[in-house]
Inverse folding.
C-alpha cells in the first residue's frame, strides 16, 4: 500500500470521527445540507487560496513606484533615468507622466502601479489599479525571504544571518514555497492543507490543485498536489467501455493495480491511476455544458487560461450537487518570463509591460468570474516570486535582487493599502545594497502565516510548526485579512 | 595565468596540446579491435539494456552489432563517428525554401531533424550524449531572442554533438563564446560599467555558468556529498564573485562586429570588443584576482579555467551525466568513479568526456543486475524514439524542400520536453528533484518526475497512441508527416498472442516483462472480439507497453 493511500485512509478515519461527533445523520453529509439546499447550493464556509507564481524574479519596483516628484526622482535616478528607446535605452525608469492614469495612494503617500494595470476594455473588466482603489487589492512592500529581521550592518558583517543562497532562482523560489530557511520537502500551502482538509467530503481529490505544474508549495506531509491542465481532464486514448478499447482499459487497470519492485514504477503507476480516477470524477463537471462552466470572458493566454480553470474548479468543488464538496482548497498557477536581464522595457511580447498586462487582465477576469460564481469573499489570491530585481540597470535589463512587492486580492482583503512600508530607493541606501537590492522589511513567513490564519490554522503552535522562523518577527499577522 | 597553465595544474602528464586534440589522440582502446572482445554482452537482453542507456533505443541490428563487438569496441566505434550535423541540414532546407519564395526554416524543421537523427542517426551515442549535455548547458528556443534563430540554435546543438566526446573545457569555451548562448544568458553585447556606475555588467551568464554549468552552489567531495563546516554546507561563491564574473563576461558581440552595437547576425563564434570589456581587476572564484589590463579573451580564458580547475566540477557534471544515461540516484561510489575519470582519464587529461561516458556506461552499477530502485524514468521523447527504433519504423519521404517531417513540432505540450526548448536555464527538470511521497521518503532523486503528473502522463500516453498505435505500415490513408511502425513481425504470428506479447517484450522491455503484465496483455488481445484485426491486437500490445509502468522506467 502506498503512503498516499495510507494517508487517504487516515483522512477518511478522521473524517468519520468528526462525523460521529455530529450524530447519525452526519454519516451522510449530504443530509445535513438538505434543509439549506434550496437557499444554499454551495458548500458552507468554503475558503480557498490561489497562489500566482511569477517565475524568474519579478521586477517589482517597476510594478509599484512612488508618484510624488521627490521620490520619483530618486527612483528614476537609481534606475539610470527614464527609459527612452533612442535617447536612454539603458534607463529602466517609467516616466512620471506615464503613471498618471494608474496613480494610487496610501496613508504614507502617493504611488502608482505600472501603466499596464489599467482596466481591460473589450469586455470591461477591472485592472489591478481599480481593484486596489476598490479596496480589494492589498500590496505588501519590501517583502522577502528572511531568517529574522536583519539590518544592513548585520547583512554585511554576518553572512550566516542571510537566508541561504540569496539571488539564486531555484533556492529563493524554494524558500518562498517552504516558508522556512532550512531544507524541507514540504511547502506551506501543503502544510496548511494537511490541517484544514478534514472537512472536505471527497478525499480522493487533493485539496491542493495545480494548474501551473509541479511545485513544492502545495506538498504537505499527507497532501500532494493534483495537477491538471488549463484544458481540463483527458481520458487515456484507446481505452473505453466497449470492444477492443475495453480490453485495453482492463489490461491498463491491471497494470496500474499491480505491485512493482521499483518505486519509480509504482509511482508512475500511482500517477496514472489517480489521473484516470479523477478523470472519472471531474469529466462530467468540466465537459461542455457541465456545471463547472463559467461565462466570464477571459483573455486567451496561459495565465488567464489557468485562472479560468481555477474558477471552474472552485465552482465545481463548492457545488453541493457534485461529488467534490470541498470546504478548503489551495490552488497554484504560474506565469514565466520574468527573468529580464534583457528587454525589461521592451514594448513587445517579451517585455515586462506585456507580462504585467497579462497579470492584470487575468486577475481582473478572475475577479469577475469569482463574482459570477459568488465566491469573491471565499477566495484569496496572492502572488509570489523568488525575488525582485536590481534597481540599477545592466544595459537593458536588471539582475537578481531580494526584497519585492507582492499582492493579495480578495473580498476578505483589507485592500487599498500598502503593507510593510515603502523603502528609500537610493542606491546603497539605508536598506539597499549597491545596485538597489533591498533588504526586506517583511518576511514571506508573515504574509503566509496571515493567510494560514484566514484558512483556519490559527493556533500559534501550529503556525510556528509550519513557519519555524515566525517567532523571530514582531508580528505573525500582517492584518491584511478582514476575518 | 592562462589556459595552458591551468591545464598543466590539472594534469601535467601529457603534452600540452589542445584539449580536443588530446581527447582523440590517446585512445586506450585502440588496440582492441585486433583481439577477441572480452566484454561481450551475455545475451540479447543485456545488449538491449545497454543500448537503452546508450542510444535512442535498441534496434535488432544494433543488438547484433554490440553482441559481436563487445561493449568497449562498440564504444570506441561510437566515439570515432562524426556528428550528424543539424545546422548544415537546416541551411540546405532553408536555401530550398527561400529559393522557392517561401519563408525560411523555423524551429519546426529543427525538431524534425532532431527526431529524425534520434530515430535513424548512426552516431547514436554521440547524439544521446549531446542530448544529455543540452540539458546541462541549456539554451532554449522558448527565449524570444532565439525563437527566430533555428539555424543558430542548430549550430549550438552541433557544438554539443561535436564535442560530446571531447574535452569539457573546450565545450565550455565554445558555448561561452557562442552567440546563441550569449543571447540566451545575455552576455551578448554585455558592457563594462558606465563611468558613473549606474549601469553595471549583466550578471546572468556569470551566475549560471557557475551555478549550473561548472561548480554548483556548495562545495562537494569527489563523490558529490557536501563538504560541511560546523554541520553546514559551504557556499562555492558569493554575490561579489558573481559581480566580478559579470565583468569578465563583457564585450561579446557578433563575429564581425567592430563596436559593441554593430555586426551581422550569425552562428559563428562571438568576438570581443575590447573597448566594452571591463579591464579592472576582478576577484573571482577562490579569491583569485585576475589582473587589470588583460584582454577580453585572456580574462575569459582565465576565469573559465578557474571554474574548470575547481574540484566541484568533476562530481557536479559527472552526477548529472549519470542521471541522463543510467541512474537517477547513483551511489556516491558510482559518482566518485566517474568523477575520477573526469579528473584524469588515465592519461593525465582532465575533462575528457569520452572517458566519463565510458565509465558511466561500463560501471558495475550500470551493468550489474538492476537494484530495486536503480535506473531512471525514461525521458518522454526517448520513449517515442525507442518505439520507432524497436519497430523499424518507416521514415516519411522528404517534402519538396528536402525536409523530412516527423510530426513532432510541439513536444512540450505533450511530453513536457523539447530539444533545446526548456522553459528556463534550469532545464525541464532539476537534478535534485525528489517526487513527493514514496520516492522522496526513500531518499531517491527523480528528475523526470518533475514534469510527470496526472495531466502530462495522459498527454504523453495519448501522443504515443497517435504516433505508435495509429501510425503503422499498411494502414489506410497513412499520415505522411511521421514514421510508420512496421508490425509485420507481430501480425505474422497470427493468433499466437503469447508469442506476440513475447516479441514486444523482447524489443521494448528486453525481456523484463513481469508475469502480471504478460498475463494482462495476453488476456486483453485474446478477449477482443473476433472482428478485431490482428493488426489492432498487435498494436494494442505495443501501445499498452508504451504507456505501462514497466516501460516508464529504464532499469
Amino acid at each position: 500500500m502506498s503512503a498516499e493511500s495510507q494517508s487517504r485512509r487516515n483522512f477518511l478515519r478522521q473524517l468519520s470521527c468528526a462525523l460521529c461527533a455530529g450524530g447519525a445523520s452526519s454519516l451522510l453529509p449530504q443530509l445535513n445540507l438538505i434543509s439549506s439546499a434550496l437557499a444554499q447550493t454551495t458548500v458552507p464556509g468554503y475558503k480557498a487560496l490561489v497562489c500566482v507564481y511569477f517565475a524568474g524574479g519579478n521586477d517589482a519596483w517597476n510594478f509599484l513606484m512612488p508618484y510624488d516628484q521627490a521620490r520619483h526622482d530618486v527612483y528614476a535616478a537609481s534606475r539610470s533615468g527614464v527609459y527612452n528607446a533612442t535617447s536612454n535605452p539603458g534607463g529602466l525608469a517609467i516616466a512620471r507622466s506615464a503613471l498618471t492614469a494608474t496613480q494610487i495612494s496610501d496613508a504614507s503617500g502617493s504611488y502608482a502601479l505600472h501603466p499596464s494595470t489599467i482596466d481591460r476594455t473589450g469586455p470591461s473588466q477591472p485592472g489591478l489599479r481599480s481593484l486596489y482603489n476598490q479596496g480589494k487589492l492589498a500590496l505588501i512592500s519590501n517583502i522577502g525571504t528572511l531568517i529574522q529581521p536583519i539590518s544592513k550592518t548585520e547583512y554585511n558583517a554576518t553572512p550566516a544571518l542571510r537566508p541561504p543562497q540569496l539571488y539564486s532562482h531555484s533556492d529563493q523560489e524554494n524558500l518562498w514555497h517552504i516558508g522556512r530557511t532550512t531544507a524541507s520537502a514540504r511547502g506551506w500551502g501543503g502544510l496548511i492543507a494537511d490541517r484544514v482538509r478534514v472537512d472536505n467530503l471527497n478525499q480522493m481529490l487533493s485539496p491542493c490543485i495545480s494548474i501551473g505544474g509541479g511545485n513544492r508549495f502545495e506538498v504537505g506531509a499527507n497532501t500532494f498536489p493534483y495537477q491538471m491542465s488549463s484544458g481540463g481532464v483527458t481520458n487515456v486514448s484507446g481505452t473505453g467501455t466497449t470492444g477492443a478499447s475495453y480490453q485495453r482499459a482492463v489490461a491498463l487497470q491491471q497494470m496500474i493495480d499491480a505491485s512493482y519492485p521499483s518505486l519509480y514504477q509504482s509511482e508512475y503507476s500511482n500517477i496514472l491511476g489517480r489521473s484516470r480516477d479523477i478523470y472519472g470524477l471531474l469529466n462530467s463537471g468540466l465537459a461542455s455544458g457541465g456545471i463547472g462552466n463559467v461565462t466570464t470572458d477571459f483573455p486567451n493566454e496561459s495565465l488567464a487560461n489557468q485562472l479560468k480553470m481555477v474558477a471552474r474548479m472552485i465552482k465545481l468543488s463548492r457545488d453541493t450537487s457534485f461529488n467534490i464538496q470541498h470546504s478548503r482548497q489551495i490552488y497554484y498557477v504560474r506565469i514565466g518570463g520574468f527573468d529580464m536581464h534583457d528587454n525589461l522595457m521592451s514594448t513587445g511580447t517579451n517585455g515586462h509591460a506585456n507580462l504585467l498586462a497579462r497579470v492584470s487582465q487575468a486577475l481582473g477576469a478572475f475577479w469577475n468570474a469569482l463574482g459570477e460564481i459568488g465566491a469573491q469573499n471565499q477566495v484569496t489570491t496572492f502572488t509570489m516570486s523568488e525575488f525582485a530585481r536590481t534597481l540599477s540597470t545592466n544595459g537593458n535589463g536588471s539582475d537578481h535582487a531580494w526584497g519585492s512587492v507582492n499582492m493579495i486580492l480578495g473580498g476578505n482583503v483589507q485592500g487599498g493599502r500598502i503593507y510593510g512600508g515603502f523603502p528609500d530607493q537610493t542606491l546603497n541606501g539605508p536598506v539597499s545594497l549597491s545596485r538597489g537590492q533591498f533588504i526586506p522589511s517583511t518576511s514571506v513567513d508573515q504574509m503566509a502565516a496571515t493567510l494560514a490564519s484566514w484558512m483556519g490554522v490559527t493556533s500559534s503552535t501550529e503556525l510556528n510548526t509550519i513557519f519555524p522562523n515566525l517567532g523571530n518577527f514582531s508580528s505573525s499577522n500582517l492584518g491584511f485579512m478582514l476575518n | 595565468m592562462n589556459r595552458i597553465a591551468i591545464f598543466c595544474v590539472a594534469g601535467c602528464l601529457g603534452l600540452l596540446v589542445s584539449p580536443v586534440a588530446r581527447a582523440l589522440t590517446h585512445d586506450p582502446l585502440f588496440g582492441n579491435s585486433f583481439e577477441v572482445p572480452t566484454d561481450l554482452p551475455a545475451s540479447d537482453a543485456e545488449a538491449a539494456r545497454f543500448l537503452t542507456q546508450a542510444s535512442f533505443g535498441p534496434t535488432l541490428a544494433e543488438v547484433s552489432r554490440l553482441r559481436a563487438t563487445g561493449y568497449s569496441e562498440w564504444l570506441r566505434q561510437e566515439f570515432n563517428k562524426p556528428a550528424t550535423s543539424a545546422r548544415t541540414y537546416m541551411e540546405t532546407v532553408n536555401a530550398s525554401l527561400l529559393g522557392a519564395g517561401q519563408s525560411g526554416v523555423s524551429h519546426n524543421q529543427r525538431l524534425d531533424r532532431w527526431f529524425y537523427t534520434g530515430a535513424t542517426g548512426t552516431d547514436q551515442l554521440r547524439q544521446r550524449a549531446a542530448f544529455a549535455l543540452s540539458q546541462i548547458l541549456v539554451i532554449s528556443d522558448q527565449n524570444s531572442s532565439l525563437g527566430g534563430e533555428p539555424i543558430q540554435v542548430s549550430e549550438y546543438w552541433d557544438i554539443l554533438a561535436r564535442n560530446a566526446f571531447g574535452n569539457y573545457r573546450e565545450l565550455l569555451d565554445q558555448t561561452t563564446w557562442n552567440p546563441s548562448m550569449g543571447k540566451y544568458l545575455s552576455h551578448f553585447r554585455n558592457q563594462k560599467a558606465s563611468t558613473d556606475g549606474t549601469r553595471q555588467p549583466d550578471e546572468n551568464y556569470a551566475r549560471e555558468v557557475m551555478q549550473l554549468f561548472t561548480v554548483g552552489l556548495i562545495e562537494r567531495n569527489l563523490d558529490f556529498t557536501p563538504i560541511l563546516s560546523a554541520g553546514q554546507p559551504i557556499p562555492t561563491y558569493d554575490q561579489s564573485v558573481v559581480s566580478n564574473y559579470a565583468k569578465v563576461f563583457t564585450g561579446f558581440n557578433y563575429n564581425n562586429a567592430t563596436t559593441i552595437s554593430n555586426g551581422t547576425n550569425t552562428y559563428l563564434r562571438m568576438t570581443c570588443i575590447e573597448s566594452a570589456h571591463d579591464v579592472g581587476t576582478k576577484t573571482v572564484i577562490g579569491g583569485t584576482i585576475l589582473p587589470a589590463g588583460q584582454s577580453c579573451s585572456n580574462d575569459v580564458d582565465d576565469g573559465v579555467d578557474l571554474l574548470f580547475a575547481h574540484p566541484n566540477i568533476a562530481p557536479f557534471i559527472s552526477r548529472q551525466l549519470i542521471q541522463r544515461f543510467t541512474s537517477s540516484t547513483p551511489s556516491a561510489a558510482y559518482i566518485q568513479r566517474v568523477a575520477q575519470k573526469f579528473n584524469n582519464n588515465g592519461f593525465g587529461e582532465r575533462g575528457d568526456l569520452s572517458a566519463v561516458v565510458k565509465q558511466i556506461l561500463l560501471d558495475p552499477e550500470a551493468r550489474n543486475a538492476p537494484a530495486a530502485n536503480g535506473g531512471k524514468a525514461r525521458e518522454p521523447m526517448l520513449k517515442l524514439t525507442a518505439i520507432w527504433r524497436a519497430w523499424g519504423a518507416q521514415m516519411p519521404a522528404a517534402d519538396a524542400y528536402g525536409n523530412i517531417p516527423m510530426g513532432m513540432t510541439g513536444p512540450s505540450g505533450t511530453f513536457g520536453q523539447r530539444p533545446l526548448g526548456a522553459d528556463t536555464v534550469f532545464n525541464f527538470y532539476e537534478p535534485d528533484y525528489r517526487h513527493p511521497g514514496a520516492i522522496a521518503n526513500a531518499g531517491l532523486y527523480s528528475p523526470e518526475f518533475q514534469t510527470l503528473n496526472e495531466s502530462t502522463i495522459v498527454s504523453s500516453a495519448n501522443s504515443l497512441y497517435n504516433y505508435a498505435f495509429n501510425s503503422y505500415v499498411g494502414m489506410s490513408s497513412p499520415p505522411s508527416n511521421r514514421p510508420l511502425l512496421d508490425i509485420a513481425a507481430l501480425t505474422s504470428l497470427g493468433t499466437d498472442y503469447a508469442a506476440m506479447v513475447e516479441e514486444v517484450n523482447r524489443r521494448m522491455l528486453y525481456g523484463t516483462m513481469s508475469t502480471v503484465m504478460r498475463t494482462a496483455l495476453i488476456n486483453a488481445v485474446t478477449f477482443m472480439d473476433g472482428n478485431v484485426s490482428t493488426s489492432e491486437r498487435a498494436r494494442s500490445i505495443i501501445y499498452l507497453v508504451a504507456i505501462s509502468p514497466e516501460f516508464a522506467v529504464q532499469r
Q: What stands out?
A: DSSP finds 13 helices and twelve strands in chain A. Chain A touches chain B through 83 residues (CB under 8 Å). The mean pLDDT of chain A is 93. The two ends of chain A are 41 Å apart (CA to CA).
